[in-house]
Each structure stands twice: as structure tokens, then as C-alpha cells.
Amino acid sequence: MREAFGDGPGTIDRMTVTLARLPVRSRRSHGIGDVAGTTAHVILRLETSEGVVGWGEAAPWPVFAGTAEATMVALATYLHPFVIGADPRDISGIMASADAALAGHGDAKAALETALLDCLGRYYGLPVWALLGGRCRDTIPLSVSLADPTWENDFALVERLIEDGVGIVKLKTGFAGHDFDVMRLESLRNDFPELDIRVDYNQGLAPFDALRRLRDIEVFSPTFIEQPVRADKVSLMASLAASLDVPILADESVFTATDALRAIAEEAADGFSIKIMKSGGLRAGRTIAEIAAAAGLGAYGGDMFETGLAHLAGTHMIAATPAIALGCEFYQAQYYLKEDLLEEQFPIENGAVIVPDGPGLGIAIDEDKLGHYAIETRS
Prior knowledge:
By secondary structure, the chain is an alpha/beta fold. Helices cover 39% and strands 20% of the residues. It is built from 14 helices and 16 strands. β7 (143-146), α5 (151-164) and β8 form a beta-alpha-beta unit.
């Protein structure tokens, strides 16, 4: 390990932003939109004057939080000026400048913070979780989301998941009618009684009959029901949470710590989905989780349509955050993308994500794969 008070990793003198599109295995449907063909990823590479490299990823979704093209401009145009020449050890200062220079764009800021942490971890020989204060868990239970509009395909996936030791699934609902949702839940409960089942509407329920439909869903005893109605319907979320025995989790309703405080004040949810793409980074995600824990709420690690690179960032965040205790859904790299960008497979064993011990994020990007899938690069 290098001396912590040595000359340091140098200053950042190169910043490369790459937009890549990766092929996926199937169509996926959600309450707010479908994904098919490819997913978009903005990959950030930082390099210091001493040759230390750090990687980060932004994974936007247009119907959720923005476009990959806008994220690329945010990084390459608006954040670039104060990143170049900065000391990567000054994460708080750099991220404060990012917030001052650019409203929103949490995914771009998450990519920047991830790359800074990866750079420091590689320089000092420490995993990112150590930079965040140490880890409280070595493994994280994995949840895999079911969103194929053809149920036979997802049924076959569940059979594979059981063989792989995965014990948690999250059923995406609200995109093809209530009867379809009930049918799939009946199938899961009857054919895979051992599964921990969660339900996620992605805002897909109409307000006027949300409670009636959720009472039907509650019969199947899901662990939680996530974001049943539109993000701005916070008062309705509170009414649903008060009327149902199954916990209600907020996702799209809670991007920031301010959103979390509002949701708690209005009793709009029993827990939060923590995503670094929403919060703007690992440290901000931890803050939201700690706010939830202080109010007695639960939290779990959600994701967007990510490669293993962003999954690694989320893994280190959860490893260092006791409050995020409901597992994670970092399955895309292994179960949805046709090919990931990491040099090694994202670490999943026996239904759990293994927290890496290596320096930085623990696994490097395969630059040949990145080049193969790249659409545009700016530096």
C-alpha cells in the first residue's frame, strides 16, 4: 500500500467520456415504459498525472431520469472544466462544484464520484468500501426482476434462478393489465413457494382504483410493493401505505435527501429504493439510507439498466451501509445483458453478490469490449 501522506495520485489531467450501447436478451416492460434491443451507458474514465486511472458509469433511462446523450454533454461539457486539474482526493470539493455547476443529472454525478473513488482506491490499494468507512457485510442477497411480457420466458428464468441459488424475485406489474399481474403472482406462489416475492409497479397504477387492485396483490403476501402510483402522488402513496398491511416502498418519489424527508414527514412509504443514479453518488445514497433508518424505514439497493461497473459501485455502497438491509437487484450484468464490460464476471455466487476485496471497485473495465460497443467518445 502507498503511504497515505505521500506525494499523492497527482492531478486529473485526462477525462474521457464514452457512450456505449449494449445488446440485451429480451424485451422488458415496466409501468412507465419498455426496454428492448440495447441499453445505453455512459462510461467515464479519469487519469491522473501520475497515471492512476478510475472508472465510473452513468446509466440513464429517458422515461425515468434523462437521456444518455444529455448525460454525456453534462460530463464532457459542464463538469469537465473543474475536474481537469483537480486532486482526486478532494471528492467533497469536486462534488460540491458539480452540484453548483449543474442541477439534477444525478447519473452523471454518480459516474464522476465513482471514478474518483475508484482512482483513490487503486492508488492507495484499498477497496472503495474501505474509503467509505469499512464494510458491514461480505455478501448481499440478490433480487432479480421479472419483466418479460411473455410469462413463459420469465417462468423459465425463475427455474434457472432457483438452480443458481437466487431466492428473491421482483415482479414488474402494471403494464399489461391486472389479470396478468394476478396470474403471474399465483404462478409464483404455487410453483415456487420458497421464493421471496416483491412487486414493483414503476408508477403503473391509475390513482382512482389503485387501492382496490393493491388489495388483490396483498393477498399474495409480497415482501413489499414498490412505487404503485406516479412519483408526484405523495399524498396518495401515504393513503395507500396507511390502508395496506404490505409495506410500500418509494422509488421514483425519492431521488434526494429532501425527497426522503418529505416522504417521511407525509408517511408516504415504509422504505426506499436507494439508487446511486438517482441520488447522485454513493455518499448521497448512504445519506438517504441513513435518513430512512433514523425514521424506522427500510432500504434496499436498486439499479437502473447498468453494466457490472455501476453494479460494483452500488455493491461497495451497500457493503458500507448497515441501513441498506433488504438486498440488491444488481442482476443486469449476469442475467440481462448479452455481454458485460468488465474484465471478469460480476461476482454473484449462490444467490448473493460477493463484495470485492481488490483495490478501487475491485474489477477493471475491458477496454476492448468498451471500444466494440462505443457509439461516441469525447475527451
